[in-house]
# Entry
Amino acid sequence: MRVIASDPMDGSALTPGPRVFLYWPAYFMRDDRGTRALEAAGCTVVDTPEESDWVMIGFYKDVPAFAGRAPNILVLTDEPRYAIGAPRIRQYRGSMVHALDLSMGRFSDFWEAYLNLEPLPLRDPATERSGTIMLAGNQPKLAGQHAADMIGMRREIAEYGVTHGLLDLYGRGWDPLPTQGESRLGDEERTWAEIKVDLLSRHRFNIALENTYLPGYVSEKFWQAIEGGCLPVYLGSPWFDRLVDPGLYVDLRDHDSVESTFRALSEMPEDERIDRVRILQARLIELRAEVLPKTWDRWRDETARLLVDLHGQRSFTESVWAQSNAPSWTGWDSFPEDERVAVPRTNLVRRAARRVRRVMGG
# Structure
């Protein structure tokens, strides 16, 4: 049974709302709050794709499993590696597939939600720490040489650090490199974020590269390092400098090689590291005071409304998609202030930066 959506404030005509099947969509839509946001917008959440007008998923790899089982598929992801270069809309095996990566234009404040992902008490950077450098998590590389993919760079750092006995490696996907354990699994007493910050609190530095080097994309990695009292070794969004002074953390743009990065970490006095972390922790507190913690809720509501708007279109074409999403999605033109981003100053990131500029048309 379809829910009839209406706005009681303006008395507009009733219109049918879409039936939606959720299968592992973007992080913020996976729990009951995502379902409630859809229902509040006039959608009906159903139990099978065959009952639905729309299937909402988070990964392109799952499209074949649902193609032909529902008229429309919305690939909704907050991880740009899964969306860069994909067509915004296409017909596939009887379904119309729509692509929306939230970090690339839909929400200009993408970084805000991860700032408040799961805020934890700040650990004192001056406490005794048994480890020097930590790197957690790995992801498969994108197929081929894809713009902005930094997974290869992370792997390069991991291999050098482990081979030279400089790095404690955590997470899955590092074979054949040895790891110290898992950082993304919760237990009966702690969430995955609490476990990770506990691990970080034992180390002086944290390698906190993003998965992708793109405008607007800042995830939890940098903030969690600061929570754990670690000094981040970071490379991420080209406009990150407007949030945090790059002179405070270890900026990979300042180093010509993996070797020089590790050398700089080994030569940094502990008093300097502690001072930097404390300033960064103060900046984190300042940012959180400025940013509303309800960003996820707003994203849920806006995403639900977007789905209703798309469902209201009678035909789905490239031009219809562009028109329906024009206020928030204009491709790379969403970031005009980044058109003149300086070329990263190191050999370590030069190839990734060149690919980014090609995608941006620079």
